[in-house]
Specification:
The complex is a heterodimer of chains A (171) and B (498).
Chain A: E1 2-7, E2 10-18, E3 24-28, E4 31-41, E5 44-49, E6 52-63, E7 68-75, E8 81-87, E9 104-106, E10 111-116, E11 123-124, E12 129-135, E13 138-143, E14 148-153, E15 160-161, E16 166-170
Antiparallel strand pairs in A: 1-2, 1-8, 2-3, 3-4, 4-5, 5-6, 6-7, 7-8, 9-16, 10-12, 10-15, 11-14, 12-13, 14-16
Chain B: E1 4-7, H1 11-23, E2 27-33, H2 40-44, E3 47-52, H3 63-72, E4 77-79, H4 89-97, E5 101-102, H5 107-114, H6 116-125, E6 133-134, H7 141-151, E7 155-159, E8 169-171, H8 177-192, E9 197-201, E10 207-215, E11 221-233, E12 236-242, H9 249-265, E13 270-278, E14 284-290, H10 297-304, H11 308-316, E15 333-340, E16 342-343, E17 349-350, E18 353-354, E19 357-359, E20 366-370, E21 377-378, E22 385-393, H12 396-409, E23 411-413, H13 419-426, H14 429-432, H15 440-444, H16 457-476, H17 480-483
Parallel strand pairs in B: 1-2, 1-4, 2-3, 4-5
Antiparallel strand pairs in B: 6-9, 7-8, 7-9, 10-11, 10-13, 11-12, 12-15, 13-14, 15-22, 16-17, 18-21, 19-23, 20-22
Helix pairs in contact in B: 4-5, 12-13
């Protein structure tokens, strides 16, 4: 079976072929590994990868709004790491609307718009304070990434915004 | 002793308090906002009562409602935890007026320590040095600017009603002061229900060292030694340890004695913490007294063997301290790492979402006080601290190694967390030699990035196995409805088989 993942705009393909002895042959790119599962239950694996011991925890969840499935992996050993991947989107829809557009500022966190300091049509300088967001009792300033003109303000004071929601457009 | 206590808090501290009560055979009533209907503390307590919408000032800060619930459910006492109403003298007073016991200091002591100018005067009388500052209820921006000039820049704008780093701004330049005051006020209003702020000189190369005290109703006051809390981000502590690697035994004893004097000066009862800023020459200055349980209380528990929450409940029930100062000693070394749902590589922006899986590290000297477990949500309404990892070992080097190992074993899936950041902090050469001051994160961790970003083959294979075996499990699991077997383990509402 083939599984395709995406991370930082790079595609990764994993082939898993069950073997008669209960192990799997795993292929990532041009590398092939023998995977022996010693214990596998509810997202927790004790396995041998070409004889090397590995403890892994995995979970995944589909974000209904963006229709993207996120995969989370924790490898627990002396150099433990957590990873976040997404299921690769079909090539046709890649580079679709979800990446940041030039001149369009999006909220990096869910929160509430506390104050808006600019108006449509206003000239702004790089670094100028455009609005403040509040979440978890913290204030986050959204500043102009470059000099330009405010062409559109999508939000109002007091409005609750989601992560990734468009806030302001600068030309 | 009490038979039922209302826990006026949420998150990890509510869970800690509920468990402490249950251990003593005391029933608990949790309160929760609409956002916390399924939260851990709501599930742990014997009873749980909805108190309002998610916004803190309509739920966890609604003192009247909390007292009402305590009376209706037959509680004899209220434990406020930390944050929220824990340092509100009005709330402590109202609890007492309602015939309930406030598990914390008397309202007068909270009030005196809460007014920083008054606290400063009391400290000076008790012979404890204080940091120059300014506070006034009706001061204008012009007053603040004038006073800031007198104190000398940089100055700190701090929330008078607060703690926990909320509402703090460092200002280097008079022009930035009005803006800093306005935004600190808003944050303070939202977090503590009180917009009052004050100014204090900013001691640039300072260390934040605090002393835990316990006092009973019989007039016994003891200290439980110090906690070093210098590693902070956004003026909020992220790593604490005890003993402090910086101070000598002589300074330790002086600070302990000063903290006891400070507590006695306001007739303090119950657990409290006296915070000091310590300069490069080990001169210590009183900053403030936190008249409540601290987030980092567990490190003191591990080196002294004293359960501070248990002691709080006993003291509130009128019992004398079962030990004297001479009975208390510090043994070994303890470190606490605060686990936050946030992105350290992106200006510590909070992360929210579902916790798909948590696996706590465990072993000798490893303790996790968590506010969320697998299946819980981290919401945008409250503090993003999700757990505290606390380790204990014979010495500092062993404690650092144990903390690093435990952080590596800690699994939190579904959210961005600071686990890797914490590992890199405690392994940083400056931290390892005990030289980290309050600037450590700004000076050494500002450009921190996760060590490696591309997924390893092992990670990719694990993700694929997760998908493959999950689909296999779905096909092979018996369906209890189809089998018509109500006694099947698959129909039990627990974790069996999941």
């Amino acid at each position: 079976m083939e599984f395709r993942y995406e991370h930082a705009d790079t595609l990764y393909t994993v082939q898993l072929e069950p073997q008669p002895d209960g192990s799997y042959l795993a292929t990532v790119g041009d590398r092939t590994y023998t995977v022996t599962l010693q214990r596998a239950q509810s997202g927790q694996f004790n396995l041998l990868l070409d004889g090397k011991r590995l403890h892994a925890y995995v979970a995944h969840q589909k974000n209904q709004q963006t229709a993207t499935t996120y995969h989370y992996v924790a490898l627990v050993d002396r150099t433990a790491r957590h990873y976040e991947l997404t299921t690769a989107r079909p090539t046709a829809s890649r580079r679709g609307g979800s990446s940041a557009q030039a001149g369009s500022l999006r909220s990096q966190m869910p929160g509430q718009v506390m104050q808006i300091f600019v108006q449509e049509g206003q000239q702004v300088e790089k670094g100028q304070n455009l609005l403040t967001l509040e979440a978890m009792k913290m204030e986050i300033r959204v500043t102009a990434p470059a000099d330009g003109t405010i062409t559109r303000i999508y939000v109002q004071q007091g409005e609750t915004v989601e992560r990734g929601q468009q806030l302001i457009e600068i030309d | 002793m009490f038979s039922k206590i209302l826990i006026a808090n949420r998150g990890e501290i509510a869970a800690r308090l509920i468990r402490a009560c249950h251990e003593l055979g005391i029933s608990t009533v949790a309160v929760y906002s609409e956002a916390d209907a399924d939260a851990l503390h709501t599930r742990l307590a014997d009873q749980a009562v909805l108190i309002g919408p998610p916004a803190p000032n309509q739920s966890y800060l609604n003192g009247k409602k909390l007292i009402e619930v305590a009376l209706q459910t037959g509680c004899q006492a209220i434990h406020p935890g930390y944050g929220f109403l824990s340092e509100s003298p009005d709330f402590a007073h109202a609890v007492t007026e309602a015939g309930l016991v406030f598990i914390g200091p008397p309202a007068d002591a909270i009030y005196q320590m809460g007014i920083k100018t008054e606290a400063r005067a009391i400290m000076e009388a008790a012979g404890v040095p204080v940091v120059p500052g300014f506070q006034s209820d009706n001061a204008t921006d012009a007053d603040f600017i004038r006073e800031a000039e007198r104190i000398g820049y940089p100055v700190m704008v701090k929330a008078a009603g607060g703690g926990g780093g909320k509402g703090i701004r460092v200002v280097h330049d008079p022009h930035a002061l009005p803006d800093a005051i306005a935004s600190a006020r808003r944050e303070a209003e939202h977090a503590f229900g009180d917009p009052t702020i004050f100014l204090e000189r900013y001691i640039a190369q300072g260390r934040h060292i605090e002393v835990q005290i316990l006092a009973d109703n019989q007039g016994n006051t003891v200290h439980l030694f110090e906690r070093e809390c210098s590693v902070q981000r956004r003026h909020q502590k992220i790593i604490e340890e005890t003993p402090s690697p910086f101070i000598s035994d002589e300074v330790r004893q002086q600070m302990g004695a000063a903290a006891v004097n400070a507590a006695r000066a306001v007739n303090y009862v119950n657990a409290g913490t006296v915070e000091f800023i310590v300069d490069e020459d080990a001169n210590f200055y009183f900053l403030e007294m936190n008249t409540r349980l601290q987030v980092e209380h567990p490190i003191t528990e591990l080196v002294t063997g004293i359960d501070i929450v248990n002691a709080q409940i006993q003291i509130a029930a009128g019992q004398p301290l079962p030990f004297t100062q001479a009975d208390i000693s510090q043994r070994g070394h303890a470190i606490e790492c605060r686990v936050y749902a946030e992105d350290p590589a992106n200006n510590f922006l909070p992360a929210i979402g579902p916790v798909l899986r948590t696996v706590n590290p465990s072993g000798p000297g490893i303790r996790v006080d968590a506010g969320v477990v697998t299946g819980d949500q981290v919401s945008l309404h409250y503090d993003p601290m999700i757990a505290k990892l606390i380790v204990f070992a014979e010495n500092r080097a062993d404690a650092i190694r144990k903390a690093d190992w435990a952080l590596a074993q800690y699994v939190i899936l579904g959210l961005t967390t600071n686990l890797q950041f914490l590992r890199d902090v405690i392994q940083h050469p400056v931290f390892v030699v005990g030289e980290a001051n309050t600037h450590f994160v700004d000076d050494y961790m500002q450009d921190w990035m996760p060590p490696e970003d591309t997924p390893s083959d092992a990670a990719l294979i694990a993700a694929a196995l997760g998908e493959l075996l999950q689909s296999a499990a779905t096909i092979s699991s018996p369906n209890p409805e189809a089998l018509g077997d109500p006694y099947s383990p698959w129909s039990r509402l627990d974790n069996f088989g999941r």
